[in-house]
Every structure is written in C-alpha cells, then in structure tokens.
User: What shape does this take?
Amino acid sequence: MAAVMNDMRFDEQVAVITGAGRGLGKQYALLLAARGARIVVNDLGGSVTGVGAEKDTAHATAREINDQGGEAVADVNSVATPEGGQAIIDTALETWGRVDMLVNNAGTVSDSVFDDMTDARLSPLLDVHLKGAFFVTRPAWRVMRKRGYGRVVNTCSAAGILGAERMSNYGAAKTGLIGLTRILAAEGADSNIRVNAIAPIAATRMLDYSMSSVVERNDPVAAAEADEVMRPFLDRLDPGLVAPVVAFLAHADCPVSGEIFTVGAGHVARFFIGRTKGYFNPRLSLEDVRSHLDEIRDEADYTVPAGPADEMAELFNAIMAQ
Assistant: This one.
C-alpha cells in the first residue's frame, strides 16, 4: 500500500474495528490501513436489521487491504456476548500481540413507533450497540491499561442525542454509549487512554432503512417523491468523509477525551452538554418552578461542566452566592 505523505501515521499499531466489513466501518479500516495500521476487520456480515450472516464480508475487506499492501485479518465473532468480545480482542493479540485502537462501530436497526416497540426489538439493539461496545472494550481496556496507552472511538447518534421518531430502541442504546464514553474517558485519563464518540451522518444501508421506515411502505409514489427530494443531499454523504475524524480520534496526537463529534459530508462539529445558570431559591416551591421556568431554561451564560465535580461546584457556588 502506497505511503501517504502525512505525519499522522499508525505504523505498527493495531486497530480493532467492529462492523468493518461494509459501510462506515470499512472506510475506517481502509483509511487506517493506508496510514500504516494493522487492522482486525470484525463483521458478522448480517443485514442492517441483524438478520443472517455473510462471513465472507469481513474476509473480503481484509483481502482488499492485504491486496493493497496493508495488513489485515478477518474476525467473525459476535460483539453481543462477553465471549465474543474477548475473542475479537484475542484475534488482535494472537496475530500481532497488541491493541492500540478500538473503534466500536457494529450496529443494527429495527425501527418502530413506541406503541409497537417490544423487547424483541429492544434487546437485540442493546446487545449489539451498548453491550457490544462494553464487551469488546473491556478486554481491550485491560491491554491498554497495562501498556499505558490506548484510543477508543464509540459510535453514538443524533437520533438519541436530539430525538428521532420510531427509534426509541436505537436512540436509547446509542445514548447509553455517551455515558460509557464519558466514564471511560475519566477512568482512562491516568493511563493515556482517550475515549471519544462520533455521531456520523452518512449514506449507508442503515440510513436508507431508517429513511424508508418513515415513508408509508405501501405508498411507492410517496417513497419516490421523498427520494427525489433527498437524493442531492444523500449523494454528498460519502461514508469516506467520516473516516478522517475517526482516524484523528484514534491517533496518538489526539488531545481530547470524553467528547462527542457530529460528522457528515466533510463537516465536523462538537456536541456538548451544557448547563444553564438557572434559578435558585432555598425555599423552592412548585409555583416557583412555574413562575421562573424561562429563567431556568435561559441559555445565556451557560456553562459546560467537565464532570460531576464541576456540576457540584456550580451548585455550591449558586447556593453560597445568596
């Protein structure tokens, strides 16, 4: 694979990428491999809803990387069990003896209005998105802590951060990853482990599925009209344009941890959790909340607490200022 004239390389480092056989994960794998990383391409090859398994999907991407002069190995273990997560990391350790980067990208969708959201739709998404990230990160974490170095990139979604109809299962699972990201960032700080999250927007099978779910499935005319309106926008959502942000967050030079970045079509921005100045009354009543709701919600002079200690400090300052 031809060398890229750029200082940000990953020579001899090992990256584990889940869901790397297609879509976004494949783009991450190709870019990191082009910059010198050795790649564990994990993918079961299932459908966007998690049905079936085409195990050649992971092998095909690994072959593509190897054919271009890179180094990659396929892995077809499931992220959804502790044993599967351990096996994925063992693939990296048995092949190259190290794990430097982990990108938790594997995921499925199963949209439905909340009235019809059953455990059969909820549990599989929690297993893959939230538990999957936990099960793969935990064995990788032990390796990273021992070495005093690591980079973890999780995948969240605007569907959970901002809310999207028909996606209560997906949004809940993805937003759980924000909490995991923030906590691991705090726990890994002393070991030079940086953990961040992305909320990608890209033209993938998952986006196509979710968009089709909001159009009446028995109305092909409505579906065609929606596609005509959205196609110029969708054509710009190249999954390859998300990969540079993932690669940066996985690089040794990445200076941030515990942050969330929204990425799409070459645009990058940061989501953050803010706190309004609020309203204080040591004799707070129900009616006070009603009367001062605008002040409570006023976004002027907001702050961005870095953690629970900052939140407690702000509460302390508000109390003591009276």
Q: What stands out?
A: The mean pLDDT is 91. The beta strands are 14-18, 38-42, 71-75, 101-103, 150-155, 193-201, 260-264, 267-271. The longest helix spans residues 119-147.
